[in-house]
User: Which sequence fits this backbone?
């Protein structure tokens, strides 16, 4: 009987901690986008808070914000080795995008984990 009670307590505690962990993961989630310019292509990362500020987490919302404001500040992301030696997408520089030089913004998918920026 005690092992069943322990199992129920463990299950209840697990159910309480999973939503909190999911909320933290969503808060630290980085959305990656490829920005195609006249000169080159770069990958930028925006946090959940930054996409809320812009008004959406899709490429259209970012393009609209860029067109309205004329410029947008974001972190440029590149592939680097993380502390554990695995490859991951990490922020390398804070950059400014200019509306007149950006031709296209599209979602960027990768198999690597995107590290949060400062």
Assistant:
């Amino acid at each position: 009987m005690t092992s069943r009670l322990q199992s129920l307590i463990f299950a209840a505690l697990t159910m309480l901690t999973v939503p909190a962990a999911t909320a933290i993961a969503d808060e630290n989630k980085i959305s990656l986008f490829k920005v195609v310019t006249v000169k080159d292509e770069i990958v930028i990362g925006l946090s959940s808070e930054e996409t809320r500020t812009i008004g959406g987490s899709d490429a259209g919302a970012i393009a609209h914000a860029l067109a309205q404001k004329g410029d947008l500040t974001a972190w440029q992301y590149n592939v680097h080795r993380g502390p554990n030696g695995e490859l991951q997408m990490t922020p390398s520089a804070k950059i400014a995008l200019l509306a007149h030089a950006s031709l296209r913004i599209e979602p960027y998918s990768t198999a690597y984990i995107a590290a949060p920026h400062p």
